[in-house]
Sequence to fold (83 residues):
Amino acid sequence: MPIPIYEPPVKIQAGGKPIDLYGSPTPSPVDWFGRGVFDLMGGNFVDSVTLFRNIGTRTEPELAPAVSWWKPAGTTTAPWICA
Fold:
């Protein structure tokens, strides 16, 4: 079985900066806005969810700066707050 040859890793950029999710979670591709292009969404270890909107195309993605939502500390039913 041949050994695969990979390109060197690159950091995914959003708004011109490497994406940053607290800890080491893995963002997931999701068509959040139903436009036929994948955005990236990920959680982290401090009860927040972050969305990186794809403002490019499906074949040439470009991620906008992050938008995050979080729950107020100590609550379980409070609405999420958007930053």
Remarks:
- The chain has a mean pLDDT of 84.
